[in-house]
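Weekly sync, protein design subgroup
Attendees: M.S., D.O., the rotation student, P.L. (late)

Item 1: inverse folding check
M.S. brought a backbone from last month's batch and wanted to see whether the design step gives back something sensible before we order anything. D.O. pointed out we never logged the input encoding, so this time it goes straight into the notes. Structure tokens as presented (293 positions):
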């Protein structure tokens, strides 16, 4: 019996799902970041780990691996020269297909049909798919891109907190909550920055959203600016003729209330998730629908 394994390898975490032909979930797995920025060796190790977690959770062994078709969506795979390097890595499955994490999110959101997505999570990226053609909007990487994302929110909060500590601007409850995590010491912030990844900046996004909800002046400014970027993303996507547009990612639901009503009215609900897209990439029949326990 042919089985299908989907892997969603993102900047914050990686997930896997093993299903049968009908979409019944047999096993799942979860691990840390698995984007290309962590290096090929670390990426390879994480992809194998999260894959084997799902297989073992299903109660399967090495003798069953030959029946598994795999689809992997990997953050950063579109970077120049990266896809051939990933394709050269060794995996135990007889068939493995690779694409970006944005593409599997799109495939899942529309269950293989035409449409667009805007992912607002650690980073941000839009993807419009029409037939065999697809075009990405944004998603060039933090800090030069990823507008409206968790990492962008966190970066703005850190910048304000540093200005407040230096006396260049008035402190706010948000800035004090941020600097408290560094004992209100600028050298500690700088030391943290030296090794901080996009996910580390994004870890401050819930704090920014929480303080915006209670009216913190700086948090409101940061979130309103992010909402403008998200709205512009959506308007650009719609202008490309996408029949459906889905807002996805960890910040999607928290950002929606900050968007204008006419913008939200143009959004649709997702038909499936990114792992469903990875399973479609692996070859699972689209007619089986979204995965189910």
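Designed sequence read out in the meeting:
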């Amino acid at each position: 019996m042919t089985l299908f394994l989907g892997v969603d390898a993102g900047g914050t975490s990686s997930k896997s799902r093993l299903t049968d032909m009908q979409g019944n979930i047999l096993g799942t797995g979860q691990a840390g970041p698995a984007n290309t920025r962590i290096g090929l060796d670390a990426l390879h190790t994480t992809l194998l780990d999260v894959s084997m977690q799902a297989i073992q959770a299903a109660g399967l062994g090495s003798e069953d691996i030959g029946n598994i078709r795999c689809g992997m969506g990997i953050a950063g795979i579109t970077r120049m020269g990266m896809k051939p390097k990933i394709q050269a890595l060794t995996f135990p499955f007889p068939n493995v297909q690779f694409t970006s994490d944005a593409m599997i999110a799109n495939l899942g959101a529309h269950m293989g049909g035409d449409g667009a997505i805007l992912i607002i999570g650690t980073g941000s990226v839009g993807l419009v798919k029409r037939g065999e053609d697809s075009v990405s909007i944004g998603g060039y990487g933090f800090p030069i891109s990823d507008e409206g994302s968790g990492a962008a929110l966190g970066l703005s909060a850190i910048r304000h907190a540093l200005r407040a500590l230096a006396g260049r601007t008035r402190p706010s409850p948000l800035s004090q909550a941020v600097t408290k995590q560094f004992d209100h010491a600028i050298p500690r912030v700088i030391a943290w920055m030296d090794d901080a990844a996009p996910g580390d900046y994004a870890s401050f996004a819930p704090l920014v959203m929480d303080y915006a909800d209670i009216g913190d002046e700086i948090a409101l400014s940061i979130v309103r600016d992010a909402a403008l970027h998200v709205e512009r993303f959506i308007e650009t996507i719609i202008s490309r003729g996408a029949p459906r547009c889905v807002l996805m990612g960890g910040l999607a639901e928290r950002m929606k209330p900050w968007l204008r009503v006419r913008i939200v009215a143009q959004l649709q609900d997702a038909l499936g998730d990114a792992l469903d897209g990875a399973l479609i990439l692996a070859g699972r029949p689209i007619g089986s629908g979204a995965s189910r326990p």
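Discussion: The first strand starts at residue 3 and ends at 9. The chain has a mean pLDDT of 94.
Action: P.L. to compare against the previous round before Friday.
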